[in-house]
Amino acid sequence: MADAVGKSAGGFASAGASDGAAGESGEAGSGSAASGTTLPTQRKTSPRPATTKTQPRKESPGFEMVRAAIPPAVAAPGTRLYPGLHRAINDLLDGAPGIPRRTPEQVIARINRRWYGEHAEARAAVDYRGCDRCTASSCTAPRKGPENPEGCDRIRNRNAWLAAAVIAQDCPNPACEDGQIIGGGDCRACQERAVERREIARVAAETTARWEAESEARKAAQGAVDAWTQQEAAEEARYRQVLGEAGVWGVRLDHQVGQHMAGWRERNPRPACARRAVGA
Question: Cα–Cα distance between 246 and 188 in angstroms, integer?
Fold first, then answer.
């Protein structure tokens, strides 16, 4: 599941807010006794900054039940939720375009499958290393996801990750709840994709096993070649020493060594499987 740091999770509903500035003003009128001319009204500037009024965040029926089930590692009991996570829960409870309404129990089960099923707490720990670019403070590597399966799976922000994970829909059927259709039966699309994934995994496993077997065969063949080469060199060195001690030198020495080694190679042929492996 891709990480969603800095992004809102749901995207289907936004918390409403109305902004207004409460400024203080007053009017002071004064006149000249001599001329009787009225001076223009002067506006006073408030020393206090303008305030912004926001509406309370809407809570859907069953929200408190879901809130109580949020893992403490994400939000401690009694604290306010991250706005994106709050919005994602509301979208699931109320329903939104393309998102059928779910019961609080279904939302809680969905949260548990995401958080505990994907080992999120361990992946969010400071000592977790999802790639070679992870440090104790953070990670700058691209996040792991469907488009980047080799990315880092470390969770940098628990709230943002859970907000994105709980609203994400892997199945193209919006009524599917992790393999089960809301209101009835198994999801056929998920079953078909499961069969495809198993077939892909089977082919990948066979390919890996075949590659490993071929690799081991090449190593064994190369080992046989190396052993034969060492024996050849040792035999040539031994025979040269014998001829040298007998007083044979120069061209005569090379000639006799060549004849001897030709006969040795006929008696000890180079391993045929090794030649094929080296040639490949």
Answer: 87
User: Is the pTM value of this prediction over 0.85?
Assistant: no
Spatial distance between the Cα atoms of 35 and 65, rounded to a whole number of angstroms = 74
223: which 2 tokens?
């080992």
pLDDT tens digits, residue range 83-123? Answer: 999 999 999 999 877 778 889 999 999 999 999 999 999 99
91 backbone dihedrals φ, ψ, rounded to 5°: -60, -40
Residue 37 neighbours by CB under 8 Å, 6+ apart = 31
CA 87/CA 90 separation, integer angstroms: 5
CA distance 41 to 118: 67
Beta bridge pairs of residue 31? 38
- 87 closest CA partner among 65, 60, 110, 125: 60
DSSP line for 231-265: HHHHHHHHHHHHHHHTT--HHHHHHHHHHHHHHHH
- Residue 194: enclosing H or E segment and its boundaries? helix 188-245
**91: nearest Cα among 66, 71, 68, 72:** 66
Q: Which two tokens stand for residue 2?
A: 């891709």
pLDDT beyond 80 at 40: no
Q: How far apart are CA 159 and CA 8, in angstroms?
A: 10
Residue carrying structure tokens 């206090």? 48
48/40 Cα distance (integer angstroms): 25
How do residues 59-75 score in pLDDT, each as one tens digit? 788 999 999 999 999 99
Question: Measured between alpha carbons, how far is 74 from 159 in angstroms, rounded to an integer?
Answer: 6
* Cα→Cα distances 269→186, 211, 221, 238, 273, Å: 65, 28, 14, 19, 11
- Measured between its terminal Cα atoms, the distance across the chain in Å is 41
